[in-house]
Amino acid sequence: LARLQATGFDIPTFVAMEGDEHLSPDYLPFVSGVFALLAGASKPFYMAQLEAAADAYEQALLPPFFK
């Protein structure tokens, strides 16, 4: 995660976790979101988060002429 951040591209990064896995608070500054892959988890909600992050990232990359 630190290497992704070091690129300077501000790439949205998500972590998917199963069951009783835990994410160290040390990683939170490096991630855009955490998905809990549990039974009954809201896949449409997670998909919407990913799509919104991708759209925001794309808009930040485009020069004003293309917006």
Task: Give a written overview of the molecule.
This protein has 67 residues and is of the alpha+beta class. Helices cover 36% and strands 15% of the residues. The longest helix is centred in the C-terminal third of the chain and has 19 residues, at 43-61. The protein has a two-stranded parallel ribbon. The chain has one domain. The mean pLDDT is 87. The radius of gyration is 14 Å and the shape is flat.
SSE topology sketch:
Elements: H1 2-6, E1 14-18, E2 33-37, H2 43-61
What does this entry show, briefly?
The protein has 67 residues and is an alpha+beta fold. The protein has helices spanning 2-6, 43-61, and strands spanning 14-18, 33-37.
User: Which ranges are low-confidence, i.e. pLDDT below 50, for 5 or more consecutive residues?
Assistant: none
Q: Give the SSE order as H and E letters.
A: HEEH
Count of alpha and pi helical runs: 2
- Nearest-integer average pLDDT: 87
Domain Orn/Lys/Arg decarboxylase N-terminal: 2-57
Pfam family, one: OKR_DC_1_N
Organism: Serratia marcescens
Protein name: Orn/Lys/Arg decarboxylase N-terminal domain-containing protein
